[in-house]
Specification:
The chain has 155 residues and is of the alpha/beta class. It has five helices and five strands; from the N terminus they run H-E-H-E-H-E-H-E-E-H.
């Protein structure tokens, strides 16, 4: 069994009429990025029911929220992709991971599917915010290239 790599599983939409280029990673190109967010960019923050609204309100950067669970196999493979995305796009995005099992109020608030018994499905769930407003979301494994593409789709 091999873990799929981002290049093998790119889910970036393609278009024949026009394409949006994936932004270069500032870490890889050496381009400095300045941010005024009070939260550290370049690392993955841990979000909870208690702190996520504060993180969202306090960020001047787009926020990427990822819901995950320890029992979710896809989430295990997705975690290093999200971590690398946070590092590569430091200064351009703030990445927050939320344990779905421990933060059911956030799951409900953002419409992540659960069964009547409270079991979560549809993980990992990645939601993009800009200026505190939910803009788009994606369910399942996303390659870093697709996360970068989705970042370009924010207004």
């Amino acid at each position: 069994f091999t873990v799929p790599t981002a290049t093998q599983t790119s889910m970036a939409p393609t278009s024949t009429s026009s394409s949006t280029p994936i932004p270069p990673s500032p870490t890889r190109t050496g381009t400095p990025t300045v941010t005024s967010t009070p939260f550290p960019s370049g690392q993955v923050l841990t979000g909870t029911n208690a702190n996520f609204k504060q993180i969202l309100a306090g960020s001047s950067l787009p926020v990427v929220l990822e819901f995950w669970a320890s029992w979710c196999g896809t989430c295990v493979y997705y975690s290093p992709v999200v971590t690398q995305f946070a590092k590569d796009y430091a200064g351009q995005v703030l990445v927050v991971r939320v344990n779905a099992d421990q933060n059911m109020a956030l799951l409900t608030a953002y419409g992540v599917p659960t069964t009547p018994g409270g079991h979560t499905f549809g993980l990992p769930q990645t939601i993009f915010f800009k200026n505190g407003t939910e803009i788009l979301d994606a369910t399942g494994f996303q390659s870093e290239a697709n996360l970068a593409y989705l970042l370009t789709q924010l207004p």
